[in-house]
């Protein structure tokens, strides 16, 4: 039998096709959407690359220049204006670990389970960093405080857990939160829109 030699180039190639083991239970098929598939919106694309992709790909450059990258980006606009499609293109083009969460799927009828689900999402994101967590329909999780009083206040607790994970005592390193909504009026403005963790707001135009 011939000798098998593993070179550095082989390892580097393998790292591009092998996903971390922590991603197995949250692995998703990222659609092959490219930036070229999204017509126009060049300014939005550039801002997303600068705010999400560049800090995770080149953290040493940001550290050298003393720039603090944003921890979160909120995309908002009317239905059908390519918010989710832009997120798919970012996931595909960046090559970063991408966790997609549909807002309502984290809610549970059992006390404490919704907050635990939020903690678990961020635990997995930290385990596979650098990564992007995408919350579609974030208004389902971050509704205005007090609006869920009839349901035991679960919405307030989920929002508090989300804010704690993003900007709490335990620093969120190499994880960027990307969220989309078509109902920004439903989001708790004092918590998310004015919160330092969500430092980039992108409004999509009417289609």
UniProtKB/TrEMBL annotation:
- Nucleotide-binding in keyword set: yes
Q: Which GO terms describe its molecular function?
A: ATP binding; ATP hydrolysis activity
Q: Which subcellular locations apply to this protein?
A: Cytoplasm
Q: Name one GO cellular component term.
A: cytoplasm
Grouped into one coarse class, the protein's main location is cytoplasm
Keywords in alphabetical order: ATP-binding, Cytoplasm, Nucleotide-binding
Tell me the domain of life: Eukaryota
**Which CDD domains does its entry note?**
RecA-like_CDC48_r2-like
Q: Which residues form the AAA+ ATPase domain?
A: 69-206
The entry assigns this protein to a family as follows: Belongs to the AAA ATPase family. AFG2 subfamily.
PANTHER family hit by this protein? AAA-FAMILY ATPASE, ATPASE FAMILY GENE 2 PROTEIN HOMOLOG A
- From the Swiss-Prot or TrEMBL record, give the protein name: AAA+ ATPase domain-containing protein
The species this protein belongs to is Eleginops maclovinus
């Amino acid at each position: 039998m011939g000798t098998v030699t593993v070179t550095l180039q082989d390892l580097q190639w393998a790292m591009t096709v092998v996903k971390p083991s922590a991603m197995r239970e949250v692995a998703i098929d990222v659609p092959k959407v490219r930036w070229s598939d999204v017509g126009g919106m060049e300014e939005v694309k550039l801002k997303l690359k600068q705010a999400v992709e560049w800090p995770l790909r080149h953290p040493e450059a940001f550290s050298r220049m003393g720039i603090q990258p944003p921890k979160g980006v909120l995309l908002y606009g009317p239905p059908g204006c390519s918010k989710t499609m832009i997120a798919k293109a970012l996931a595909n083009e960046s090559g970063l670990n991408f966790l997609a969460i549909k807002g309502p799927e984290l809610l549970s009828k059992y006390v404490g389970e919704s907050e635990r689900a939020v903690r678990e999402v961020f635990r997995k994101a930290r385990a596979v960093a650098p990564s992007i967590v995408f919350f579609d329909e974030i208004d389902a999780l971050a509704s205005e405080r007090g609006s869920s009083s009839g349901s035991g206040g679960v919405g307030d607790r989920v929002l508090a857990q989300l804010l704690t994970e993003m900007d709490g005592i335990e620093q969120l390193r190499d994880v960027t939160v990307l969220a989309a909504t078509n109902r920004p009026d439903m989001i708790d403005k004092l918590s998310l829109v004015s919160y330092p963790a969500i430092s980039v707001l992108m409004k999509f135009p009417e289609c």
